[in-house]
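Dear H.,

Thanks for agreeing to be a second pair of eyes. The structure we're designing against is below in token form, covering all 652 positions.
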């Protein structure tokens, strides 16, 4: 063996492979929170960089002896770079880079990239030290042998494939259907490694693009049958009660349900929203869960407007903006509604300017319609108070009835406020993110009260149905210690799943509301709203289930295949009793529930991946033609070239 290594000049290659292997393992342990639950997973984590180190560095062995070491160094550097990019990305998002997210970073005008710079640490040079060692070895101990045979290459590739297959086999025993089911990227990295994940991701993307090409009109039948069989009858008590009313949606940035009615040292954090939660004309849902994926705010928007699930990877706004949709604003358009979106950030963010055309928004008031001068902006754009204030004249200029949405921004990670914007005290957990959250949530609450007062003054309050929803979590798992202090108990996976609750308010003038603890999720809002507006939804292909219907389905899937239901939930692959949080054995759990979760996601994915609505023509629906829309602002208040660039960091 020793002779073989020496003779074939493999020593340099092996040094490179071992260095890359150990460094990758060190990164797993230091940087990523992969949830290692048992010894098998621990061993797999240690072993999984081996196959890809051998495979990719092994490609270097194909090169002629003269440049072989250089080739190995270049490959080693590229892999180190990929690893490091994942590390930086993970520090924000607790997730790994996927091809669609790279596209997102580009489309979002580099804003994600800008904020990434602030999380790079000088000690990170550690992740490149081994490449430097390799260069030194190549320079000082350069002893290339004269062999030109392909044998070493073949042996290394064979070894890499064997190690990979063994790795996969053990992983499959611990986690069946690892590669076939849709689940968390963390699992793939934990079991198969960061580099193999990148390959998996690339293959997935090629597959997704071909899905559209391969889908045909006959694929609609299965989806249509499934959705129609699961259609919930609207509640006669509420059907049509808001017919002809205006609609205002408000996306409450990062607002989680734990904040509602929460008192910080005796002071309510969101007094205005609390009053609405107990208001006579408001339906307030306190078991409502966000179902967003990597597309965050935009995923929530997608679900509100379309009642379909976003993608398991990347943002549907970015990857599927060419799809045909049958959205709520488009459905109401055929009944004479005008639609508009209001957002104090630039129109390219999350690719909104394209996706809103597919959704059918008549108008998009982006940052160019607002005064974006210093002091008025923070993080991604205009602060909520000036945002609502400056939106009022724009809103009043719309032809009624209207369907509109307002996307707030101030309560965004890292939640720090400018001096003078708040006199609400910060929390005292010692975690800056959590502590500032209370201040920015209170600021948002004040801005909402201001907006409601303005609506009343404008005479719109009594003619408008107002839907407000927390768009996604604001405080990530990185802050579990501080959150334990806030909620007064340890943040177990069960508690963490419960923290994914976001508040949902539906204020309907003239209708008696109620506080409901029914389980619901983002996709359920559109059918609820349409039924209130007196729109029959039987002919539309939606994933959601009317929250006010007596037949409302209470199993709420999450994008990674986990779910909650009144009886039990699945979090990080484990089952818990929903009431007590006790860990349940898989065999004590009704398999039909999990089956229905899989089916729900699968049916929606078929529509979105195959762009199936292009083949589907609901009765009375006038199809949207995106090229009919143009959001150019001919009298901009702020020039298009400005971009908001968060100084601290982006989101987590
Ligand atoms: C940016 C805003 C915030 O326009 O939607 O994005 P988020 O990071 O919350 O998805
Ligand atoms: Mn958001």
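And this is the sequence the design step returned. I haven't edited it by hand at all.
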């Amino acid at each position: 063996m020793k002779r073989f290594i020496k003779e074939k000049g493999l020593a340099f290659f092996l040094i490179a492979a071992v260095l890359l292997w150990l460094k990758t393992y060190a990164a797993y342990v230091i940087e990523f929170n992969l949830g290692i639950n048992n010894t098998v997973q621990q061993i797999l984590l240690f072993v999984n960089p081996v196959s890809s180190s051998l495979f990719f560095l092994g490609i270097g062995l194909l090169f002629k002896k003269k440049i072989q070491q250089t080739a190995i160094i270049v490959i080693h550097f590229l892999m180190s770079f990929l690893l490091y990019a994942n590390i930086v990305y993970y520090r924000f998002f607790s997730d790994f880079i996927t091809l669609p997210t790279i596209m997102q970073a580009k489309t979002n005008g580099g804003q994600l990239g800008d904020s990434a710079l602030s999380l790079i640490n000088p000690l990170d040079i550690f992740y490149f030290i081994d490449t430097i060692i390799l260069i030194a070895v190549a320079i000082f101990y350069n002893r290339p042998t004269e062999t030109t045979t392909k044998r070493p290459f073949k042996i290394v590739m064979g070894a890499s494939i064997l190690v990979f297959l063994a790795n996969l086999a053990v992983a499959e025993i611990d986690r069946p259907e690892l590669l076939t089911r849709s689940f968390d990227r963390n699992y793939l990295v934990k079991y198969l490694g960061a580099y193999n994940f990148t390959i998996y991701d690339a293959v997935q993307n090629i597959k997704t693009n071909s899905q559209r090409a391969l889908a045909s009109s006959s694929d609609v039948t299965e989806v249509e049958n499934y959705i129609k069989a699961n259609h919930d009858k609207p509640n006669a008590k509420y059907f049509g009660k808001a017919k002809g009313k205006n609609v205002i949606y408000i996306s409450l940035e990062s607002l989680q349900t734990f904040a509602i009615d929460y008192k910080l040292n005796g002071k309510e954090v969101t007094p205005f929203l609390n009053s609405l939660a107990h208001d006579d004309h408001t339906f307030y849902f306190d078991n409502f869960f966000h179902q967003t994926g990597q597309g965050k705010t935009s995923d929530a928007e997608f679900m509100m407007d379309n009642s379909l699930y976003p993608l398991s990877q990347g943002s549907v706004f970015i990857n599927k903006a060419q799809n045909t949709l049958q959205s709520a604003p488009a459905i109401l358009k055929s009944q004479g509604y005008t639609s508009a979106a209001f957002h104090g950030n630039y129109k390219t963010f999350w690719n909104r300017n394209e996706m809103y055309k597919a959704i059918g928004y008549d108008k998009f008031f982006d940052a160019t319609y607002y005064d974006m001068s210093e002091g008025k902006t923070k993080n991604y754009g205009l602060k909520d108070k000036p945002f609502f204030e400056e939106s009022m004249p724009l809103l009043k200029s719309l032809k009624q009835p209207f369907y509109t949405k307002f996307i707030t921004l101030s309560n965004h990670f890292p939640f720090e406020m400018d001096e003078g914007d708040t006199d609400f005290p910060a929390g005292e957990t010692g975690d800056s993110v959590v502590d500032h959250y209370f201040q920015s949530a209170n600021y948002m609450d004040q801005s909402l009260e201001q907006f409601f007062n303005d609506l009343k003054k404008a005479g719109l309050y009594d003619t408008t149905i107002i839907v407000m929803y927390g768009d996604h979590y604001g405080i990530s798992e990185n802050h579990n210690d501080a959150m334990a202090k806030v909620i007064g108990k340890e943040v177990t996976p069960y508690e963490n799943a419960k923290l994914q609750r976001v508040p949902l308010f539906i204020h309907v003038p003239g209708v008696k509301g109620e506080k409901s603890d029914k389980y619901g999720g983002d996709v359920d809002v559109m059918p609820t709203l349409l039924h209130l507006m007196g729109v029959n939804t039987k002919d539309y292909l939606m994933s959601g289930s009317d929250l006010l219907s007596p037949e409302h389905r209470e199993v709420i899937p999450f994008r990674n295949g986990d779910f909650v239901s009144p009886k039990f939930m699945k979090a990080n692959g484990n089952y818990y009793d929903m009431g007590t949080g006790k860990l349940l054995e898989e065999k004590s759990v009704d398999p039909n529930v999990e089956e229905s979760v899989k089916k729900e996601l699968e049916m929606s994915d078929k529509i979105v991946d195959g762009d199936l609505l292009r083949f589907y023509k609901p009765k009375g629906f006038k199809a949207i033609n995106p090229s009919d829309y143009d959001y150019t602002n001919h009298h901009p208040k702020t020039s298009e070239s400005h971009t908001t660039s968060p100084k601290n960091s982006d989101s987590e």
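Two observations from my side: Residues 253, 296-297, 345, 349-350, 380, 407, 409, 412, 651 surround (2R)-2,3-dihydroxypropyl phosphate (ligand 1) (CB under 6 Å). Residues 641-651 have pLDDT under 50 and may be disordered.

Warmly,
E.
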